[in-house]
Write a structure and sequence with these properties.
This protein has about 650 residues and is of the alpha/beta class. Helix 8 runs parallel beside helix 9 and helix 15 packs antiparallel against helix 16. It has 6 domains: about 30 residues; about 80 residues, Signal recognition particle alu RNA binding heterodimer, srp9/1; about 30 residues; about 180 residues, P-loop containing nucleotide triphosphate hydrolases (Rossmann fold, 3-Layer(aba) Sandwich), CATH 3.40.50; about 70 residues, Helicase, Ruva Protein, domain 3 (Orthogonal Bundle); about 210 residues, Peptidase M41 (Methane Monooxygenase Hydroxylase, Chain G, domain 1), CATH 1.20.58.
Length: about 650
Amino acid sequence: MNRNLWWQALAMLAVVVMFNYLFLLAKPQTPDPVAELSYSRFRQELSDHNIQEVTFADQTVTGQFRERIHLEEVQRAPDEGFLAFRTHLPPVADPDLLNLLQAAKVVIRVTPEEKPSPWTTALLYLLPWVMIIAVWWFVFRNLRTRQGPGSGGLMGGFAKSGAQLYTRERSQVTFQDVAGLEEAKQELMEIVEFLRNPKRFTRLGAKAPRGVLLVGPPGTGKTLMARAVAGEAGVPFYSISASQFIEMFVGVGASRVRDLFSNAKRNAPSIIFIDELDAVGRSRGTGLGGGNDEREQTLNQLLSEMDGFDPHDEVIVMSATNRPDVLDPALLRPGRFDRQVMVERPDWRAREAILKVHTRKVPLAEDVDLRLVARSTPGMCGADLANLVNEAALIAAREDASLVNMAHLERAQDRVLMGTERKLMMSVEEKRITAFHEAGHALLAWLAPGADPLHKVSIIPRGRALGVTQQLPVDDRYHYSRSYLMTRLTVNLGGRAAERAVFDDLSTGAQNDLKETTELAEKMVCQWGMSERIGPMTFDRGEEHPFLGRKLASDNSFSEHMAWIIDQEIEKIIKQAEGRADQIITEHRAALDRLADTLLEEEVMDRERIKQVLAEVGLAGPPAPERPSLGMEKAEVAPAGS
């Protein structure tokens, strides 16, 4: 509500309060306290000729005594008895009452029943309706005032798109604030140049792309890239989420699309950014999204606005999504989204640049090496790195440190990757099982040829894990050989092999190891053609969404016989890796025992400490990696898809 409406409401409240106050002042005051008599006491006083006058009003009788009386239940002074009284007639009529009153020479008065005037009755009936109409009038007048002229009536606010407008003054983000993503910047820079100097392109007959679709996993900076384009171009930038188009009223989504493009054309050249496009852009007629007709109408209107009869060469539509596979083909054709820009996870060089951006306002100690941190965080995107820096700053603040040092970053990385330390009270036997399990992983990672360098082993419970063995790739990997994957499987099964060799029993601690092993072996057979028996064939079994990492439900495109062969090959690969793990554990049992005993004493061992312990039993490990490292949980480094 606006200010005038508030003042009117306060004025009405003041009138009501004043009316009640005047009503209380005008109410006749009783000069003497009134005694509440029972009807039997009233008849007794009447028999004693102590009633002087009475007044009948409906079923209530009030009056005056000839002499003051006292009531036992009311404590009053002797000279402060009651002179006035009030009682109520019983529901059964008393035919002798009137004769007794006349015999006692009591003055009888009757108050007639007050009937409201016709004007009062009419006012009481009309007042609620007047108040309802007044409230509606005030609310919708205020709504129309905010919408401005041409809003389409009282309900016209629903047709407004609700997009946020960012001008040059509000758009402070530029490409300098977006580290890495050089290829994406280069593609988007052409759009910026077209908006800045369109004649440079139109003189050769070139046209700007109608739409640009930013595609990539969550957290890689798609929305930030769109804001940077707006800041670089210096043109009006309309930002809206696709879910804002959908409303419970039919046709509202299409109206909001029309309003959005109408405003953008009015302020052309301009940019429209639609985040999470898959909310309205899913394929029509597939049943995805529940078959919402309102969503399909919104999509049809969006298709018409992007490439219809009305030209909008100076309005460029940008969208972002992490699910391009579910988008309608009509959206992705040339003339609508002409260009798709992949915003992938950054490599270590881009991660270093991203860390420099996020640490601009963070005081760093001299021992902080951002290149080292970048190399130790493969697979992390911009949002993950921002969270890492923030966690390190929080840890330093809790310790009242003036600078964020390398130890803070390492602890923050452990917390992000593995979770917060848990004060879990484990029995001696369970702690011993955990120590041998992690020692098995560590020994396999140390001795298996081609394994990622071992960094740290811990039996301190973190998150959902009772212990963690950390490995760190030497560099970002884009191709994975069969020998490397077999080594990964062997290391995954090292904990289970150690438990079986030491305790001659198995525990549930290998659940996550077995899950990862089975999924990796399934991909090797079904997607990467690494089975000698099946050969160079691929199947849709074990497929995952390219960005969400989740399996897609689909019908099998192979026979039951082939499914049986696939199961046999997966089992064969896992058995081979298990045999290698058992062999290494059996041959180096003394090293396994020494590692487990040291873990029980120290709980955490880094690479140098592991090297010292293994050297004591005469076991030389692989050469040190070319660079130092912080740590990366083994399970976090998953092989890339095909």
